[in-house]
Amino acid sequence: MKDAYGFDHASDEVIAVRAELADEVVQALQLAGLPTFRSDHVSEARPGAVVHVHRDADLASAAVSVSWRGDGRLAEAARVAVAAGDLHSPDVRRLGSVGLHMQDSLIRILLSAGIIASLSNDCIDPGDVLVFGRQSELPPGLRPTYVPLSAPVERTGRGSLRGRIHITHDSDEWPEDAVGPFELTPP
What we know:
Elements: H1 12-31, E1 36-38, E2 48-53, E3 64-69, H2 72-83, H3 90-112, E4 115-119, E5 129-134, H4 176-179
Parallel strand pairs: 1-2
Antiparallel strand pairs: 2-3, 3-5, 4-5
């Protein structure tokens, strides 16, 4: 089945399976206390988790995705700042920061509910969460676990690296092999 632009759409049976998964995602996020709705059920732009059912037949990613829509006031303030050329505005930074924090939270909530979810590597919608299905459908060894993008930094006190770092007595001299090939001159 093709749309007005010539793209293939999934069959009605496939869309029904995707819609069932989307309904499970909505329920899991609502049980966590988040305002959540499907994009095809609500037309107004209200804040919360928006669950999308993709109708494309050929998908390089997931058939269901979730995005976070913050309050319209923050989005409007960020839009005004960008239109004025102020890309480093606190409103722009806050909108992006909230989106990334919510993406992380949405993934953790969905994984805890047994739904396979991951980060999107899409440069157009980098804040989207991709939903692939239920963990119960996979063998235990293939079930995903959430791994944060970077490990938390452990704060240490003064002197905690004592005995681990060794600085040689000639560390302030230029090595001879670095001077020649790079045409560096010692200070």
